[in-house]
Write a structure and sequence with these properties.
The protein is an alpha+beta fold. The protein folds into 2 domains: 102 residues, Rieske Iron-sulfur Protein (3-layer Sandwich), CATH 2.102.10.10; 287 residues, Naphthalene 1,2-dioxygenase Alpha Subunit, Chain A, domain 1. The protein contains 11 helices and 25 strands. The strands form 7 sheets. An 8-stranded antiparallel β-sheet has the order 16-22-21-20-19-18-17-25. It has a 4-stranded antiparallel β-sheet with strand order 8-7-6-9, with no helix packed on it. A hairpin with a 5-residue loop joins strand 21 and strand 22.
Length: 458
Amino acid sequence: MASFVHSNGDRSLSALIDLDRGLVGREIYVNEDIYRQELEQIFARAWLFIGHESQVPNPGDFVVSRMGEEEVILVRDRRDKRLHIFLNSCRHKGMKVCRYDDGNTLVFTCPFHGWSYDTDGRLVGVPYYDAAYHGELDKSKWGLHEVAQMCNYYGSIWATWDPKAPSFEDYVGAYAPSIRHCFQSTDGADNGVELFNPVVKWRIPTNWKFPGFSFAGDAAHAAMTHRSVNVAAIGPQGAMEGGSRSPMRTPFPSRSYSVGDHDLGHGGQNTIYDQTGAPSHTDTWQTIPEVDEYYRKTAEEKQKRYAGKHLPAGGHGGGHFCIFPNVIIDHWRILPWHPHGVGMTESWRLYPVDRNAPKVVKDAQRHYVMRYCGPTGLTESDDMENWNYCFPASKGTIAQRLPYNFEMGLGHGETDDQMPGLTLNYRISEEPARARFRRWMEFMEAGSWDDIFPVRKK
């Protein structure tokens, strides 16, 4: 059973989480020993979001991403164009072999001693190979360390360090259709998006679980936290119809829920559609009619593609969701929360846009997400202020004796055949967070994947 070091001696982690009563100990957010266990038990095992294939379209293209605290390189092999993901660390003495966020290269050369690696990870160059190593170093054993498994899922790139992890589709379970939907263009075509470059990154002084376990699962905060921005009319429609921070949408028969997968840990704010097909476009971009014209046409194409079929529960107006442990997915923004210490999180924003959209549409979408998201945006800076105060306010001796309350909606979950295996609750509840904590506990106590997959029903 997992335990952690406390001033009063070792204690069981399970003593800090009582999901039957909706109570979570603050110590799991602030304890250094628990955090180190998370890196080993969760981030070294789970499937993690890396990026998108549009970031590396050409042979030799690379982009640096993260898996837990560690940097990895997503690169397209310059020979066979295959994608690879390598730990950004030289096998000689550990120096980064790539110190740029993105670019194109023939080889990755370590700036410490000059070991160089091909884009397929092979060690191809060692200074003084004959004179100092006497030609005896077996270069085939010292290539860059590659992830155990990688999945290109409709353009989105995921990876795990664990060779025993289940397949990606088994890992995401019922959310596979929603992930596919989020990487469709607005006309419903698979893998129809590209990402804006560069990735927006900044650090916030808080534990990764504050945003990772509350985002896409805390609808209750909006009325208070975002009170000012809700009336600031930052959406593309401006002040029309009262203004909003989100684009206008055509009404469509549906029901909104907060959703938790208590087996796999995923969940968010999602929608069940009571009618097949897709909604039409509502003119929104009041000062840029070309944008409305484009989205009106793509909506018509999507209606044809989804004729007789229900829309998936997430993305394109259907809500956003967390793929356990640390990434929020939507069709217009992807939010990974990378741990950088028990009290530091690196927040990333990746913004998809229709690959085939004209420049005027891409520019309009880019300007909108800049207003909405990011460290200087008008919405998520509100959230950061909350999380940045929650962490230090939970570190004290007295504070750690008091659990967090996750009771909202407890005992009021339901099921629906359109979202099998998931627990649905009122649109404002803490069902998604409770699902994440349940899976967190299972990962932290598991000796291996054999202990947590296939899921053992309680």
